[in-house]
Structures are given as structure tokens and as C-alpha cells.
TrEMBL record:
This is F-box domain-containing protein. Pfam families: F-box, FBA_1. It comes from the Eukaryota. InterPro entries: F-box-assoc_dom_typ1 (IPR006527), F-box-assoc_interact_dom (IPR017451), F-box-like_dom_sf (IPR036047), F-box_dom (IPR001810), Gal_Oxase/kelch_b-propeller (IPR011043), SCF_F-box_component (IPR050796). Residues 2-49 form the F-box domain. SUPFAM superfamilies: F-box domain, Galactose oxidase, central domain. The lineage of its organism: Eukaryota, Viridiplantae, Streptophyta, Embryophyta, Tracheophyta. CDD domains: F-box_AtFBW1-like (cd22157). It comes from Gossypium raimondii.
Amino acid sequence: MQMARIELPEALVMEILSKLPVKSLIRFNCVCKYWCSSFQIPHFIFKHYHNNLENNNLNLLLRRHDGNTFQPYLSQLSNEKDQKDLVKQNIHLPFFKNAIPSVYGACHGLLCLQEPSTDKAALWNPSTREFKILPPSSIQRPPYLSPMEGNLALYGVSFDHAALGFDSKTNDYKVIRFVSFIYYHSPFVTRTFVNIEEEQRYAYPHYEFQVELYSSRSDSWKELPCPLYTPTDLILGNNYVDGICYWKTMTEAYLGLILLFDLANQKFSILPFPEITGSCLHYYDNILMFNGSLSVIVCLLEGTGMSFDLWVTSEGAWTKQFSIESISGVLHPLGFGKNGELFLRDTNNEIVLFDLSTQELKELEINTYLDHFQESISLHAYVESLVRINGIQEHEKHIIRQLAGDASKKY
């Protein structure tokens, strides 16, 4: 006897599909034209993204630099709990050759890759494997400046402190970055100095800063007025939330401030750091995102150990979220994982995990002693999404994936 066929309402089918991983949805593109077209509708894309966001389905990437081949790469960490081999696969970036690209984002599952020494940048959706190379910078680079005290020759240009975000007002993904121009007095290279005072006068560099904004809708950059304060430190992981980009900056009086940029009105503003009280003078702080909110982590150095305070802001008011007592043998934090665990790099150049619920330190068997530029190791979290960037699929010229420990594929 043939069983009756049960037809599910299309709305229920789409609700079920919106809870599936991107990998499954890509396979289901060939089931029927309706499904394929539905997966490209903005309503379905954002419903799928927010389902992942609500379920805290974070994916983690470690930015690294191979000490033997000097090639930049990203280690993708497994989401499975108690996984013995936490590194799932390594993603190599031949598009950036020997440079270490900075990673910015994530925003709706997208990441921005930026090479600091050039204007080479790209948008990347690691879930759909779509990759888009951004156009060259539109900022003019004057070779000389002529202030009152002699000519200044351009020595170098640096592209740093980027942020990737979404402008809900124009439904546009945007990248903002700071461009640093480094000038030296032109006689410094060729001139024979009479005395030390004269040499010192010409030895110090002069910096000029500019800001440019990329729009994915126009696929172009435009220059913006530079704010009074410019970023001074790299952030931990993401520096964007709810239409606002954030950077750490410093005043002339060495007071910490947070620089804000509103993508919708394209305006800069500032926010004070939380007031650090207590007798400990040896500490440093940095900004990061915690549970979708702007946060500041304060690292207190106490002998061979390190303690941590996490501050979270709401409408400009700071509240201490929690404190972690002294942990011995750790160097600096990398960021937070799926369940609020704190990733750290220790004195043995290994990545370790501090569980907030059990207050225990766990070794992850991720050794970085062979990494080049160990100080540049960073942690980046993103949520899977179907957001399209009108790019191309990953290509070996740009990105190569291989299973961890698989040395069969050269790069």
C-alpha cells in the first residue's frame, strides 16, 4: 500500500532550511529553481544569519605566519566540543605572498583582508568561499611636503586600522581604513651632518594621515576628512557592532580614548575608556567585542601571572562584567570563543583556553613556536552567512584550503 505524500507548506520548508549550515544549502541549490532563487533573497539570507547568531554558531580563525615557508595562513578551529585536534584545516593566502594580511570584521559573516604595506585588500565570505579583490586606493600620494623647516620626502605609505561594517541606511557594506604617510627631511639620506644636534633634527619622521571609505555598492573608494585623533593600537578581533566602528586612540596627555565612526552619517566621535582604579600600575588594555557589545579587556601584570578585567559599555556607560584572578605563564589574550572562553597565548608559545564557568586553564595542543612573527597571531570569530559580495569563487591564486597536517598540497 502506497503511503500518502505529505506536502509541507513552503513557509515551513524555508523556516527549516534557514537553520541549516551554508554547506548544505549550497548543495541544495540543485534541488529546484525555487530553492536556488530563495537562497538569494535578502529576507532568507538575513533570517539564516540571525538564526546562526542566536544559536551562537561561531567559527574561529587564527591568523598565523609559517616560520619555514614565510607564507601567511589562517587556521580554522573545529566547533566540536572536546575535539582532540582543534585545528580543522589551514587556509593559505598566496594572494598576499609573504606579507601578513590584517583581518578585519566580521560583519554578517564577511571578513576584510588588508595588506598593510600596500593598498591590496579583499572581501571574503569564508562560508560561501566567495572572494572579491577591492580596487586600488584613490588617495593621492604627494612625494614631497614643504613645511616651513625644509622639504620632507615621502619615505613610505601604510594602510592600517581598517574596519568592515554595514550601512543600514544605504544597505551597503563598507570598509574604512587609515592611510599613514611617513616623511623624512630630504637631506637626511645624503647630507653629512656637522654635529649630533643637527642629525637628530633631520632624523625624526613626520606623519600625515588620511582616511578613505570603500562602498561595495559603487565598488570604489572615497577620501574622508581625517579626525583629530587617529588609532594607536591594533584591536583584538572585531571592531564593529551595530553600524559603528571602533578603535583605540590616545590624546596628547596619554589619556585613552575610543574613536567611533558611524557608517550611516559618516561622522567620527570619541568615547572615554573606563576608569581603572586600584594600586596596580602595570597594566595594559585593549578593545574587543564580547557577546555583541563593545568591551575593554584590562590585563593586570602581577609577577609571573596576569589577571583580567572585562568592561562592557551600554549607551556610553561602562560596567565591569567580570574579573579573572591571576593566571600564571600567559602572555596576552587573543579573544573570546563560542561559550565565552578566553583564548590566550602562553610563555611556551602555545594557545590555551580559560573556561570562565570552571575557572580552569585548558591546553589545546596548538603550538606556535614555529610561527614567524608570533606577536601577530590573532583570533577572529565569524558567523556563517549567505551574504553575497559579487566576487569570484576561491581560486588557488587567492586562497588554498588543506586539511590540518596534510602536507601533500604545496602552496
